Amino acid sequence: MKKVLLTLLLVMLFQNNSPANHHFPISRDSKAAVEQGKILYNQNCASCHQVNLSGAKGWNMKLDEDGQRLAPPLNGTAHTWHHPDSMLHNVIKYGYTKTIKDYKGKMLGFGDKLTDQNIDHILAYIKSTWNDEIYQRQMQISTPN
Ligand code: HEC
């Protein structure tokens, strides 16, 4: 009996720890979330992805001075909207350091600076720049089934 309870407890702990995935998809409906996200975006992301989310100039044509990729647009003109929220959330939280071995690029995680909620507000802001069609399609692929 004790063992069962312990197992149950562990399972519950584990679920609570899993990367906040219960709240996807993230909508852009809350004005407050979008505005908060914009502030956080400008503080943490605009230096590379640009204030207007257009990405670094020439991002898909050249590498930076260290031979690393430049920041892509997040405004819906590149790939970003092809990814579900769970993945975007993780890229912002952990960068590519968790998914790419010996990653030397510039997209490092913000997990030590931003809470999960901060990250979701930034995503709401990013989505507020997308046109309706890609927004709806991305919401669909982000909906857990
Ligand atoms: C130091 C520069 C830099 C900063 C600051 C930065 N990024 Fe990035 N970001 C990049 C680069 C470079 C890539 C492409 C990574 C690669 O291919 O190595 C990227 C990739 C991404 C991607 C994946 C895009 C896609 O289309 O797959 C997302 C999403 C993203 N960044 C969001 C953010 C957010 C949100 C912030 C702020 C919290 C941020 N980034 C801050 C440089 C940066």
How many domains, in number, for the residues? 1
State the helical fraction.
40-55%
Considering the protein shown, what is the CATH homologous superfamily?
Cytochrome c-like domain
End-to-end C-alpha gap: 34 Å
How many helices in DSSP terms?
A: 6
Order of helices and strands: HHHHHH
Count every beta strand, where a strand is a DSSP E run of 2 or more residues. 0
Bound molecules: heme C
The CATH C-level class name: Mainly Alpha
Low-confidence stretches: none
Condensed summary:
With 145 residues, this protein is an all-alpha fold. It has 6 helices and no strands.
Overview of this protein structure:
The chain is mainly α and about 140 residues long. The protein has one domain: Orthogonal Bundle (Cytochrome Bc1 Complex, Chain D, domain 2). It is about 45% helix and about 0% strand. The protein contains six helices and no strands. Helix 4 (about 85-95) packs across helix 5 (about 115-130). The longest helix is centred in the first third of the chain and has 16 residues, at about 1-15. The relative contact order is 0.19. The mean pLDDT is about 90. The structure holds heme C.
Feature tags:
0% strand; 6 helices; binds heme C; mainly alpha; 145 residues; 47% helix; Cytochrome Bc1 Complex, Chain D, domain 2
Topology:
Blueprint: H1 2-17, H2 31-44, H3 46-49, H4 85-94, H5 116-128, H6 132-142
Helix pairs in contact: 2-5, 4-5
Bound molecules: heme C.
The site of heme C has 23 residues, from helix 3 and helix 4.
